[in-house]
Every structure is written in C-alpha cells, then in structure tokens.
C-alpha cells in the first residue's frame, strides 16, 4: 500500500491511495448510477482498482474486471455514454493474434445498471473471410473496501474475506465485515466458461465468417437467473423508461446553438442521473465516485441552481433534510438541536463508528442554506402549504443560527469541530488547508467564514418574508432586524478597505484572515454588500488574479498558499464561479457575466460537455485546454447545475409564485446564441414557453402566442 501523507488522510479530500498507480483524468472515466449503486471504469470498460469499481451502499463490491481478447488488451476505437446516461459503450478491435492480423475483430462492450445489478454485453464481430475461434477472458476480484478506504483512509483491521465459490456459470465473492454484515458479489455468465477459477473466466467464442457472437455478464448481490439477451434488453428498457420519466420533470432550454444545446442536454441528463428517488422525494446525490450520497450543502445548492426550472427538486431536498434534522448534541457527529445534516453514509466504517459520517452534521453553512432554500422555494412556487408543514424545522434551524450567533463575540455563525474525527474546516472549502491567515498560518477556531454570514443574512430575510405571509408580524420584524444586524456586522468586521475586498474569515480571536478568496463573491449572490463595495469586489473577481478565462479561481494568485493544482486554494469550481456570476448579475454586471458564461461553456466543451467537480486554475492560453484535476468527481451535481444558474442570471429571469408572474430584467444571451426558448416553464398552474431573441444589440423576451394571458410576463430593460 502506498504511504499516506497528511493530505490523503484529510476526510474532505478524495485521493485514491490504495496503490502507487497515478490516477486517470476524470473525463477518461465513465460512470453509471442507479440508486445507491454506481460503477466507474476506464474508457475500455475495465475496472482496475484505484478509484474504479462497482460500488453498492458505499462499499466496493467489484474492484477488478478486465477483458482480454486472445490474451491481449483490445485496442480502443472509441467510448461514449448514451445521451440519457444509461448505457456505456466501448468500441475496440483485436491486437494481432496468432495467424490473425490486427483489426479483424470488432469488440463492442456495453454496460448498464438496473436495480443494483450491472448488466454487460460483450459482442464480437468477425470481419475476416474465415471462421474464427477466439479466446475471450475476464479477470475479476472484489476487495469489499469501504468508500473511505478507497479514498485513502487506512484501517488497522478488516473483516474476513471468504474463499471464492465457483459453479458452472457463476462465481460468488464474499466478505464479512467487522460489523458482522456479509457482503457478496455474484458474477454470472450467459455461457459456461471453458475454465472458471476464483479470479478469471475463460471462453472460446466461435465466430462465423462475417458473423459474430455475444457474451452476457451480470454482477449483483445474488444469482437470480442466467444472464441473457432478453434480460439485458429488459433491464435497458426499464432503466431508460425511468430516466425519461425523471427528465420530464421541469422546464428545458433549447437554443439556436447546436453545441450549446449539447451542453445543456448533458448537464440536465447528469442532474437526472445523480437524482435519487428517496421516500421524501427526489434528492440530487453530490457526485461520482467519492460523494454519491445525500450531502446537505450540495443538495441545497443544486436545488437552488435548478429551482427556476424544476422546483420539485428543492421540495425533495427540503423534506429529506428536515426529516434528518438534529435533535441532540453529540460531539462525535457534530450535531446540535436544529442543525441540518452535512452527509450520510452506509458503509462498514461508519457503521462501526470508525468515522462519524454515517449521519454527520459538521457543516456550518448547511443550516442557513436550508432556510434560504425554503424561502426561495416559496417565492418560486407560492406553496405555503408545504412551508407550513416545514415550519417547525425552519424555526428549529433559526434557533440553531441564533444560538451560534449568541455564542460569538460579534454575533457571527462560527464553527469548531467537537471531535478530532470530524472535519477541521466546515464550510464548502472543507479541506484542512483551506482557511488561513495572509502569512499562511492556519487559524485557531472558532472560525467565522465570510460567506456563511451572508447565508445567515439571506436566511433571516427569507424567514421574515415567510413569517409575514403567515401573519406573524412579531417574528417577521425580529428576523428582519437580525438580517440587518448581520449585514452591518459583516460590513464592519470583514471589509478590508485597503484591498477593496472582504476577508476570508475571522479566527477564534476575531482577527480577520486577510485573504482574498472567492468566498466573498457569495455575498454578492445574497445581496449583502453595499453597491460601492460590491463594485470593488466585482472588479477584483473579474481581474487576472481571479479570472482565468475558464472560470473564477477559489483564491487570488498572489496569496501565499496559492496553487492552481490544489483542491481549494487556486483551483476552479464551476458551482463557485456560477454563484459569483449570479451575484455579479444581481448588481448589474451583465456583460461580464456573458463572458463568464462563454468561458464556462468552452470549459465544458473541452471536458466532453461535462463540467467536473473542479479543475486546475491555470490561466487560459491560446490553443490550450483547461487542465483536469486528477481525482475530481464526474459527474458532479452542483457542477452540472452551474450551467442553469448562469443561464438564469444571464436571462435576468425570476418567477414570483405568489403573483404567478414571470419577470425578466435586462436579458442577455450567451455569445453566439441568437435565440433561446425555455420550454414547459411552469408558473402556478400555467405552463408556458418563454422565448428570447437577439434584436440588434438588445434581447427581446416574449411568450408563445398560445401562452399569452396564462402567466403575465414583465420585462424590464
């Protein structure tokens, strides 16, 4: 096993460290997901360890699956995912075999997931002029490692791995964890292998002249029936039907730009892929492979990004988080009454409490963001009945915010982990080196992050509005006063006039961390800064220290810890860029926002239409592509959702669910796009198509004639 350094032990940072092999760039990995099961493989479809694998409930149940044709790795021709993210396909050809030249056999490998099973078809086509007997082999293994082991956390002891059990057409791999749970994988084949061992299956496939043959493989927790063409087709049909149903929820975007449409379509498909139907409703899991579970912060931000198009996602997120709201104080899980969950896991290590992430509350921003989302959902939909049901949870969350403020010298919301097993930093930049003083020193807690105060400000404003609508004037006034006191305190204690910027944080002695980081841009999103200070902040975020041409760096390039290849200290996170961009639009910075959209779109093009969780923060140079971060999640929900947050800001579009009114202010279209339609946009009980069209140097907005009168459209130039 590779030696683990301090950063690899950081539970916030995903660095697969089970061997010394360098990780692949994320856009050459291919992921499929179904519920709490997902698979990550390379472009040939091989699973080779590292961060690859078939995972079920946070356990890697298949760590090796390698295809060989004639004893050799096939040559890759191309690999792709279907547009709906259901089927992965790799097209390959044979290497030279005995008395057989290269490129005679076409190898097509297709894969999908359905009901916690992996279905695979290996199809060979013979383009030679004679019948062929082709050796085909599959190597396999299952290490049953917990997700946190795969990410690099070392364990002192593991459970028992049983000897493999083989039968005529399947192999059983089994492990009993220290939690006494038995986990197993059954690998089944449609044809009986000529040789089957604990680690491989060998086949001889007879291919007629100009003919072919197929082998079907399934991997699941049990052996239910022999794999077959019919089972494979049935699973694919069911998976596609369910994905179509998920993608029908909410409005869609269609423009005059074909490649731009490809980006929108892929982003929408990735949101659908990551969205899991829970008993409380749909919930966007954070990302594959490291964070394919319900995260509080990620779910809320993804829901905010999609709110204008699909408010049902926000409703599902709010319902789930309310159901799992903390009711007691526990140091191990960082929970306190009213606090909203940060993360939940199902693996062996969390079941044994080796780590606190089974249900963990160490996120300082999730609670105010939860409240903020509730207010935004109400404004978008007018659904006060749901808010009434949610009201006890919102009041409990507000009580937690109040308690945090009461314990801080200046009335801020601050964090300090309650146990050493928890996250040392608990904002969205949660790696251990993400918060520091200007000289690079790590501050002592409790830490008050600048953006968290902005979220609390927005939460109080939202609560005041909801209380007014519920007829509780006393609470409305108190929360409105809290919001304004937060605004004044942030302006007084975080503003660095000499730098024209807000400090990253206040340390435990209320000394500012005088660092220029993108966190301050989140204040623009919630509308906290004064117009004059907002202008100075925007100017810096658009200057070369932050703006790379691909997006906004997390840290200015002249700060001491700056490293464009780091996780949080100089990289580009698309969701962060989108929040900053939407904030700029709020303060009237529309033309720069259009350029930001263009850079983000061009980044997506280079990453095969998928924005990764993050990428390196190098300055854009002519002819060069953005540089991938080696173990970023792909797809990642809030990276996919950033496309829609940026587009809403560009279009200047808001929906008032109480008035059933669409409002468009100073709309812009992305560079190269002349028309754009928001299809099936629901406003109250109405459903409309909203069109934007470039007319000279302006953009006109109008409803389809058949929709006029069903939902008022107010356009402000």
Explain what you see.
Strands 7, 8, 9, 10, 12, 13, 14, 15 and 18 form a nine-stranded antiparallel β-sheet that branches. With 717 residues, this protein is an alpha+beta fold. The longest helix is centred in the middle third of the chain and has 23 residues, at 384-406.
Layout of helices and strands:
Elements: E1 30-34, E2 37-41, E3 47-48, E4 53-56, E5 59-62, E6 64-69, E7 75-81, E8 88-93, E9 105-114, E10 117-126, E11 132-141, H1 147-150, E12 160-161, E13 165-166, E14 170-176, E15 182-189, E16 195-196, E17 200-207, E18 212-220, H2 229-247, E19 252-255, H3 258-274, E20 275-278, E21 281-284, H4 296-306, H5 311-323, E22 343-344, H6 348-351, E23 359-360, H7 366-381, H8 384-406, E24 448-449, H9 450-469, H10 473-493, E25 495-496, E26 501-502, E27 505-506, E28 512-513, H11 521-526, H12 531-541, H13 574-586, H14 590-606, H15 637-651, E29 653-656, E30 661-665, E31 675-683, E32 686-695, E33 698-703, E34 713-716
Parallel strand pairs: 30-34
Antiparallel strand pairs: 1-2, 2-4, 3-6, 4-5, 6-11, 7-8, 8-9, 9-10, 10-18, 11-17, 12-14, 13-14, 14-15, 15-18, 16-17, 19-31, 20-21, 22-23, 24-27, 25-26, 27-28, 29-30, 31-32, 32-33
Organism: Aminobacter carboxidus
Domain Mannosylglycerate hydrolase MGH1-like glycoside hydrolase: 300-604
Domain Putative glycogen debranching enzyme N-terminal: 32-211
